[in-house]
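RECORD CONTENTS
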Amino acid sequence: MSTSTPPEEARPVAIVGAGSIGAAFALLFASAGRRVHVFDPSSQQRDALLDQVTASWRDLDSFQLAQSTEAAVRERIHIFDSLQHAAAPAEYVQECAPEQLQLKREIFAELDACTHPDAVLASASSALPVSRFAQDLPGARRCLVAHPGNPPFLLRVIELVPAAFTDPDVTQRAARLLSSVGLSPITVRKEIAGFVFNRLQGAVLREAYCLVRDGVASVEEIDRIVRDGLGLRWSVVGPFETVDLNTRGGIASHALKLGPAYAAMGAERGQHDPWTPELVSNVEQQRRAQLSLEQWQDRVRWRDRALMAALAARRRPGG
């Protein structure tokens, strides 16, 4: 987490919703030195928030990952029973309400009416694009999705998904603020249901369910294959870099050798999305811009050493 402390005059960030995601964001922002205003309509959720934050902070501290002190984190979090009082002074609002379209419409209408006109209004929606619930608002230009990995104080990537009506400056300001608290923002270029994170996760889950349904493997076996195989590797390199490093000659060579097999697997599930030569060329050019083939062997060794470090960490107490 960022250790920088914003100036005293910095406006607070506000969180709407004090469930697990809201509590995780509160810990993230407060650990980075931000004043945090939290609203939830449930008194039970409001009462439980600080204990949730404290428990997570203590777990982080036990792994020497905590930033700031427990007392400072708690001191920076202010809990409100009014959305307007929580959000009105904020420069950035993170909505973390349940994934219900009408509820998000109501919350964003209230936020648009009660916040400063330059405040960024961001939703942690997991699948609903912001155009579904904010397009008719007078302040639609300052609305976007900021979808985190869960929990955001551990999974640092966050998807920024603007609509066509979102002001590009708003997206840039959101990216700067989220970067300043230690997140890694990715701007999704087009609105699409589920964005990138959940579409990738959904593809794996769909196939996992099919494999169980068809009696190919058990739930435990599939989890083990991902945990000890795919997931372990993906913890240090993503899917494109994985296949780029798995095949001498890089990703173009991999596509040539295995593209037809993957196309057949997709067709078996009713999905005909072959890797065309044009698509493979596009992906290969992007990979070569990141890593030349002259650097390939060094990167393979780096990957192997990173996996060794991950395996060593698993063997430590608590790993």
